[in-house]
Specification:
- The complex is a heterotrimer of chains A (501), B (142) and C (410).
- Chain A contains 16 helices and 21 strands.
- By secondary structure, chain A is an alpha/beta fold.
- Chain B is α+β, with helices and mostly antiparallel strands.
- In chain B, the strands form four sheets. Chain B has a two-stranded antiparallel sheet with strand order 1-8.
- The longest helix of chain B is centred in the N-terminal third of the chain and has 9 residues.
- Chain B starts with a strand and ends with a strand.
- Chain C contains eleven helices and 26 strands.
- In chain C, the strands form seven sheets. In chain C, strands 3-2-1-7-19 form a five-stranded parallel β-sheet. A five-stranded parallel β-sheet of chain C has the order 9-16-10-11-12. Chain C has a five-stranded antiparallel β-sheet with strand order 22-23-26-25-24.
- In chain C, helix 1 runs parallel beside helix 8.
- Classes of the chains: A alpha/beta (501), B alpha+beta (142), C alpha/beta (410).
Chain lengths: 501, 142, 410
């Protein structure tokens, strides 16, 4: 057997005093790390298979397990990190491009953590959300800048189509295929209960979920999987996916082994075939082409549905957004480089794109400068991790946020970043029936509702502290933000002052 | 009344309910101490084959044939819970013969044991329900 | 309403509990010749064995009569039923009127003629608490006991007293032990277990005569003894019912609501004959669970209920020296010997696509699933018989049937 250069990354540590050999870890590990040895009369583990998904740790009834990072070390080297060395070994073994999942984990700056929020003291009163009304509802879509009257002098009240959100948060696109039926069921049920939206991603809409249509955004991506007239009309809005933060410049890729009968039916592709979305939309090479697609979709849905255009945050995002705002789109969604994925080439995930904070600030500023900010709403995603991130994003100019990684964590995801293996022990990023079953939507939807409800409370607390009683007043209110530890250029792009100023 | 119900759609066959049950009725405070190296003697049992799994425990029937069949009067209904007075039980197993769901089992002590919804131990609420990782076992009114 | 119940065991108690669940106000008078609080007769062997005591043998708590407002006349015997005037007469000269009457008089030991029996000083029956207490007084480490009858009563008696006497020898005319519940293949397994425990047997022979302290058997064998326990069989106590005009076969004739052929008179328990649901034939099934359920059906019927008890089958759960056996139904149709190992014997009987009987020795885990199939006459085609025969389990049922069992209240 050729030598395997890669030492197991994790160690399974079992407290022998606590372990009762119930074998729950064994039954629950799709990676087959644990097994019971009749010979030794105890549980043993194969560390090399462990991805540190924490399923066994969580399910162990006596808390006998923990997973630790192996402290096996290569000789220290400031230039060659252990991760880099291992990747070289892996590629030398396989000859293939490295695949990863979830968001960019590299140690780049997180601007959310370098921005602080204001609070009222003395000169303007703060508001107690427990005692006074507080509006977290927002509407997404075009906002008419003028009042128009008809020939009889009556007000024209017909407005462009829009989305109403009880709180400025939506579940962003994750396709059926990349995540499981039960994950979708959880998201759909939670979105309905919360009065927000979830997003089909590019995998089509399972027929069981048409009933959640009023809380669904249906996506049209470059592969056009699962797109048909009923699909377009089933949702409350339509999203054209141009790009995604985790892998700007390339299309989605669902391996054939995840394309089971149900997925195949929903995507309208043969069973077992790889679902490879082209990098570009082959009918879009300009803003004018994009406009054509937008109006085709509007035509197909009788101008009843707002159209979102989703792009990855890349270098010239402000100019691109300006073009989109002029193309007829109702909403622009921007996905930062920390955005998650079910599978992406590692190099792209870790090296392409820009932080959402900077992209958002740049786009909002540009659209205002050009006087077209009311033509579109801005939705941002790509690692919104808490209610504080939501508040900061809105103050930077967003109308609402997209969350996905946090939503998956609410469902049990422990960010083991092995989605591409299709063996998700939490029943999320898998199509294996025995694993999908592990995510009971009764539990999942409840946890999602809890998460967003908690965030909503926190958002109201923070708004109240600032003396603000509605999201609309917070929106683009960059005076409420201060930077910390940021340089002049960063502050300039973010359009905020430094703390102390 | 509230009873235990199982939904096999969500049962993962992890068998944790059996361990929680054994622990709940061990009278011990530490699960490890209650279970380590000891035979498992749960009052709930998982049936499984292939991808089908589900747990079975006393249904606490309104018309309990076990109670009516009991030759000693050890089985009785108290506040809708079918209770076994192990002091009276002689281990004749007539109830095992009678229960249509197979939910009464011999105890290691020689008499019988059955689910009493944890009303007879320190946990008060069924521990199998609390320990089920996927809400496949629920304790509710139906 | 005036309810009168003759008897104080399972059928009588079943009747009281059913009456009280729908008629809290009616007057219930319970008359029993035995002076004891209701107790479980099958426990007398456990009493001698030391596994229970008189206190724990009580079938219901001490306050049972009080909480159920039952006027219990214990140690009082009904001498006559006047069906025309709806009255019963007792040996104390009392006359008690009834609107509804339950006869739950049980059964008594049957003793075939045996020469010289009258010369045996220490002879006992083994049915009642008083029988057991009398026998207990005679027991001693130097005593040799001869039990006539290798049925349930005789063998439970043997188990109960073995450790307290010098020897126990059992004689039965049948060629095997427990002839009413085990077949020729299964019986020797249980016999072997009893022999290993120390009980000895003479089968296929009966006592021709008793001479001094020796029993002369029909096969020529001579068995010395100090004590004789007569456990040959029982006969239903039907005389009161017969005199009252009730139709009587081998037991009192009743329908599924436990009604006799005489208006306002019901009968339940060991004194009756009922339809065996497994065969459709009428027979006496002197079994405690059936007695309770019949008594309960009578109680329901007396208060206007109609859901009688029509699923009576022969069924026995019994253990000897740690070996458990459960049998139910009838041994007709096709015998399916599923397991015959050192520790377990299992035979199922299938007729017309239905389970009609079973014998389990050793592993009796979840036997009730089989019992229910017999009672409900479930067609085996509706489930996975191959799975079920190996082990009683709900997996063998369809998903719909399973959901009905586990996801609904019962």
């Amino acid at each position: 057997m050729p030598l395997n250069y890669i030492f197991p990354e994790f160690e399974v540590v079992r407290n022998a005093d606590q372990c009762v050999a119930c074998r729950a870890c064994e039954r629950q590990c799709a990676n087959e790390v644990h097994h019971y040895s009749e010979e030794y009369g105890r549980m043993i583990a194969d560390n090399s298979k462990c991805v540190d998904c924490q399923r066994c740790v969580t399910i162990c009834p006596t808390h006998a397990l923990k997973i630790v990072k192996s402290d096996n070390t290569f000789r220290e080297n400031g230039n060659w990190s252990a991760q880099t060395i291992k990747e070289i070994y892996r590629q030398a073994d396989s000859g293939g491009a490295l695949l990863s999942s979830m968001g960019n984990p590299q140690n780049y700056p997180v601007y959310w953590d370098k921005i602080l929020i204001n609070a009222s003291q003395v000169t303007n009163p703060s508001i107690d959300p427990l005692r006074e009304p507080m509006e977290t509802r927002v509407f997404l879509g075009k906002k008419p800048s003028t009042i128009t009257r008809d020939e009889n002098g009556e007000l024209v009240t017909k407005r462009p189509p829009r989305l109403e959100l009880s709180v400025p948060i939506m579940f962003s696109a994750m396709s059926y295929g990349s995540i499981s039926y039960n994950a979708h069921a959880s998201l759909a049920r939670a979105a309905k209960e919360l009065g927000i939206y979830y997003n089909t991603g590019e995998g089509g809409l399972h027929e069981d979920f048409y009933c959640y249509g009023p809380n669904t955004i249906v996506q049209v991506a470059s592969g056009r999987f699962g797109v048909h007239k009923d699909y377009l009309n089933a949702g409350a809005g339509i999203e054209i996916k141009i790009g995604q933060g985790a892998k700007p410049g390339i299309g989605g890729h669902l391996p054939g082994k995840k394309v089971n009968e149900d997925v195949s039916h929903t995507r309208m592709i043969p069973m077992g075939s790889d679902a490879i979305s082209p990098a570009p939309h082959h009918d879009i090479y300009s803003i004018e082409d994009l406009r054509q697609l937008i109006y085709s979709l509007k035509e197909a849905t009788a101008y009843q549905k707002p159209v979102i255009v989703k792009i990855a945050a890349v270098h010239n995002v402000a100019a691109i957004a300006s073009g989109i705002a002029r193309s007829g789109a109702d909403i622009i969604a921007i996905d930062g480089y920390r955005g998650g994925t079910g599978a992406a080439p590692t190099r792209i995930r870790d090296n392409v794109g820009i932080p959402i904070e900077l992209a958002l600030a740049a786009v909002d500023a540009r659209l205002r400068e050009e006087g077209i900010r009311n033509e579109v709403s801005i939705v941002v995603g790509g690692s919104i991790r808490s209610s504080a991130d939501v508040v900061k994003a809105i103050a930077l100019g967003a109308d609402a946020c997209y969350i996905a990684s946090s939503a998956l964590m609410a469902l049990g995801c422990h960010l083991c970043r092995s989605c591409q293996e299709g063996k998700c022990n939490w029943g999320i990023a898998t199509q294996r029936p025995d694993l999908v079953k592990r995510l009971n939507p009764n539990v999942g939807s409840k946890r999602l509702v809890n998460l967003i409800t908690a965030w909503r409370h926190e958002i109201m607390e923070m708004m109240g502290g600032m003396g603000i009683n509605s999201i609309e007043v917070l929106k683009g209110n960059r005076m409420m933000l201060r930077g910390i530890g940021l340089n002049e250029k960063e502050l300039e792009i973010l359009g905020i002052k430094h703390a102390g100023e | 009344m509230k009873r235990i119900y199982v939904n096999e759609d969500w049962c993962l066959g992890c068998h944790l309910c059996e361990y929680y049950c054994t622990f709940a009725n061990s009278g011990l405070e530490s699960m490890a101490y209650a279970l380590k190296g000891k035979p498992l003697s749960p009052r709930i049992q998982v049936e499984e084959e292939g991808e089908i799994h589900f747990a079975v425990s006393c249904r606490h029937c309104d018309n309990p044939v076990c109670v009516k069949s009991c030759i000693t009067g050890a089985l009785s209904v108290e506040d809708n819970v079918i209770h076994c007075d192990t002091n009276k039980c002689v281990g004749c197993y007539t109830c095992i013969m009678a229960c249509p769901y197979g939910c009464i089992m011999p105890a290691t002590s020689g008499v019988i044991q059955k689910c009493e919804l944890c009303t007879n131990n320190a946990h008060q609420k069924p521990l199998c329900v609390q320990g089920c990782p996927n809400e496949a076992i629920v304790f509710e009114e139906r | 309403m005036n309810y009168v119940i003759i008897g104080n065991s399972a059928a009588a108690i079943g009747c009281v509990e059913a009456l009280r669940s729908s008629d809290p106000a009616g007057i219930i008078t319970l008359i029993s010749s035995e002076p004891h609080h209701t107790y479980s007769r099958p426990l007398i062997s456990y009493l001698l064995q030391g596994k229970t005591d008189e206190e724990r043998m009580k079938y219901r708590p001490d306050d049972f009569y009080q909480t159920n407002h039952v006027c219990a006349k214990l140690g009082c015997t009904v001498t006559k039923i006047d069906a025309k005037n709806q009255k019963v007469m007792t040996d104390s000269g009392e006359t008690i009127a009834y609107s509804k009457l339950l006869i739950a008089t049980g059964s008594r030991p049957f003793v075939p003629p045996m020469e010289g029996l009258e010369t045996v000083k220490k002879q006992f029956h083994f049915m009642t608490l008083d029988d057991a207490k009398a026998l207990e007084k005679a027991l001693g480490p130097d005593q040799k006991v001869l039990i006539v009858g290798a049925g349930l009563i005789g063998l439970k008696c043997a188990e109960g007293i073995l450790h307290r006497v010098q020897s126990v020898h059992v004689v039965d005319l049948a060629d095997r032990i427990l002839p009413s519940i085990l077949d020729a293949e299964a019986a020797p397994r249980v016999q072997k277990h009893l022999e290993e425990a120390g009980v000895s047997f003479t089968l296929g022979a009966s006592v021709k005569k008793f001479k001094a302290n020796e029993a002369h058997l029909t096969n020529g064998e001579k068995v010395p003894f100090d004590i004789v326990v007569l456990a040959v069989g029982v006969r239903p106590n039907v005389e009161l019912a017969k005199e009252a005009g009730c139709a009587v076969g081998r037991g009192i004739v009743v329908d599924e609501n436990s009604k006799t052929t005489v208006a306002n008179i019901y009968a339940a328990g060991d004194c009756t004959e009922t339809v065996n649901a497994a065969t459709g034939k009428t027979q006496v099934m002197a079994l405690l669970p059936n007695a309770y359920l019949q008594g309960e059906a009578a109680g329901r019927a007396m208060t206007g209920g109609r859901d009688g008890f029509s699923t009576a089958i022969p069924e026995n759960a019994i253990g000897f020296f740690g070996l458990h056996l459960i049998t139910a139904g009838n041994y007709e149709g096709e015998a399916d010997l599923v397991e015959d190992t050192e520790t377990c014997y299992k035979k199922l009987f299938v007729k017309d696509g239905r389970l009609v009987g079973y014998m389990l020795i050793g592993d009796v885990h979840r036997a009730g699933i089989y019992t229910d199939l017999i009672r409900k006459k479930t067609p085996l085609a509706s489930l996975d018989y191959d799975m079920l025969r190996k082990e009683p389990q709900l997996l063998a049922f369809s998903r719909t049937a399973r959901d009905a069992m586990l996801a609904k209240s019962h």
